[in-house]
Sequence to fold (237 residues):
Amino acid sequence: MANQNAAKDQYEELLKHYNTYSPLAKNVGESILNKLLTTSVNPAISEIYKKINEATDRNQPEVIIELSTQLKAIKDNEKTHQKSLNELRKNSDWEAIKKAFEPEFEAMAYEAALEALKATHNAIQSSKGETKTRKPRTPKAEGESTRTPADKKVYQVTGPDNLNIEMIIGQGLKWKEDETIILEALDIKFSRDDKDKITVEKTQNLKNGAPATRAALATALEQKVYEDKGYVATLKK
Fold:
């Protein structure tokens, strides 16, 4: 238990640093914890709550009483089961438990590793979109500009309510007014100054852990990160 607490303390201490300087690393760590620590609700309890709500809507007090009795019985069984688990924990050796459940622990380890791979890959892919690519400079005649235009990418973004806009990504290009529809739909906070310049808060992250920049958002939409909300992007050039 001491080792477990030490790891938790070290994780939480590093999290304070990564939250400011490496949000991608923080999000990868959190995605693994969510995968391993998320507990599921007893489906029988969920079903009874659903039936109680339906009976309430239909004004069926007898049914509600019967369902409440069933709910109490299930919860009592859970308490009894928890006592058994406490006894098992008190009377069993941890190494023996790991050995007995070795296939399950191995499956859980691979699930965590898979989650880490996916989260890291998404973070790297999104951050690549932020890399400013410059072409090699070539000698210019005296007085002639040596600046090379940045490469541009054009994405066609589609979404609910027949949304269909072009999102041009390139060095120096700013957020456009029609793109705020996407920001609002995806719960990404932004502000406007007195000249209507649109700015996304620097602390904002996308669903895949990447900073909420135009390039990262376009990449995330192309990778269908927000497909569940109906927003996707296709790279045109």
Q: What stands out?
A: The two ends are 55 Å apart (CA to CA).
